Amino acid sequence: MTSPGQAASNRSNAEKSTGPKTRRGRKKSSQNARKHGLTAPITVTEVERYWRIIVNDALRDFPPEPADPKDRIAMRLAAAEAQVARANAFEEIIEKSAAEPPPKIETQMLHEVSVDLANAALHGGMSREDMEMKLALYQFIFAVKDDRKRTTRKNRSLAARYINEAEARRHKALKEWVAVSYDLPKQSQILL
Questions:
Q1: pLDDT at position 94, please?
Q2: Which residue of 70, 93, 111, 142 is 20 to 30 Å from 49, comparing CA positions?
Q3: Domain span at residue 176?
Q4: Average pLDDT per block of 10 residues along the chain, 192 residues long
């Protein structure tokens, strides 16, 4: 339990911590949690596109706030479809970037440093400082490659998580849509 003195100290410190003061600082801090945009709200345009496919009526007006329960379920299903599409697009981008070869300069530098170190080991003729510098460069290039692999693994894991979550939302919304569309009794809905 927090003592009264500690609570007073916490309140005093909280009054001092008011966040950024400038417009630039507030704008920058508003993006602190943003990393990939997968959790950003789905846009009306994305939802409308899928909603028109689901209701199968291109001429019908899109209701941003539907009153009809069937339209609300169609809207949830459309939002879930848009989230699945966004997560799949993110995964596609990750796979494309992972398939790209390392930058040519990186490969070239790694080759040159390897050759220099091998020649120095076989024939000598390289100062200790030069050899240490080449070895440090060699280790740095490998660290960059390892970091790229680690980032790719992390992004693949993140994409898989968001795809699974989006597909679960889609599955739930699809069950509701099928139940409402075909007027299924409650017992049949459980089996979906």
A1: 85
A2: 93
A3: 36-184
A4: 86 78 82 69 85 81 80 90 90 83 74 80 79 79 79 87 92 89 64 51
Q: Are 136 and 64 in contact (CB under 8 A)?
A: no
102, 111 Cβ separation under 8 angstroms: no
By residue count, the chain amounts to 192
Task: Give dist(CA 100, CA 50) in Å, integer.
Answer: 32
Q: Is 74 helix (H, G, I), strand (E, B) or coil?
A: helix
Residue 10 within a domain: no
**Tokens found for residue 47:** 């939802």
Is residue 29, in this structure, part of any structural domain at all? Answer: no
| Residue 157 is assigned to a structural domain of this protein | yes
Assess if residue 49 is contained within a domain.
yes
Which of 105, 73, 55, 69 has the alpha carbon at shortest distance from 173? Answer: 73
- Write down the residue that tokens 């003195």 correspond to: 5
**For the chain, what is the domain count?**
1
- b/e 81-106 (16+ beta carbons within 10 angstroms → b): bbbbebbeebbeebeeeeeeeeeeee
Q: What is the pTM of this model?
A: 0.61
- Environment class of residue 25 by beta-carbon count within 10 Å: exposed (0-12), middle (13-18) or buried (19+)? exposed
Q: Where does residue 80 rank: exposed (0-12), middle (13-18), buried (19+ CB within 10 A)? A: buried
- Number of CB atoms found within 10 A of residue 176's CB: 19
